[in-house]
Amino acid sequence: MDNKKRINLNKLLQVFLISNIIATFILLSFNLYNFLKGVNTDQLFFHDFTRLYDQHPVYYSLNLALSCFFLNELYLKKKKVSLVVFIASSIILFLGIFFCASKIIISVFIILYIIQLLLLVKKMKFKLMFLFLFAFSIIFSANNTYIKEVWR
């Protein structure tokens, strides 16, 4: 294969990550606009969340989950992004997964995310901090009335 045609997987995943962060930020902004307009909160989740792009929320949340895993690799393993960028990007991606409200994606994502953090984080205090923050987000998600209704 010619070197000019060779695809750099790392660069491709970086573009994928950045595009998902930007797209999710736009969706979250649109959701906030709708919420401030007085739209019922039930209309902020699942198909209504990704309606702007006409994306299926389950497939979109798969993209976001993959982006989260790659972001962890960039920050925790390769140290290629700052802590502020890591936290802000993680919040955007987590909120996107939350508003997509796909039961199976959220369930599998939680398990795989915890496994990835335990494998990538070296210091025990950081492992405990990540687990505590993640447990808090799970409790917050579990108390959301819309997700409770969807999970029934």
How does this structure look, described?
The chain has 152 residues and is mainly alpha-helical. The protein has one domain (3-151). It is built from six helices and no strands. The chain has helices at residues 9-37, 57-77, 83-100, 103-120, 124-142, 145-151. The chain is globular, with a radius of gyration of 17 Å.
Topology at a glance:
Blueprint: H1 9-37, H2 57-77, H3 83-100, H4 103-120, H5 124-142, H6 145-151
Helix pairs in contact: 1-2, 1-3, 2-3, 2-4, 4-5
Characterize the overall form: globular
Note the run of SSEs as H and E: HHHHHH
What kind of oligomer do you see? single chain
> Pairing-aware structural class of the strands and helices?
mainly alpha
Q: How would you sum up the major sheet?
A: none
Number of strands: 0
Keyword list:
152 residues, mainly alpha, 6 helices
Could you provide a short overview of the structure?
With 152 residues, the chain is mainly α.
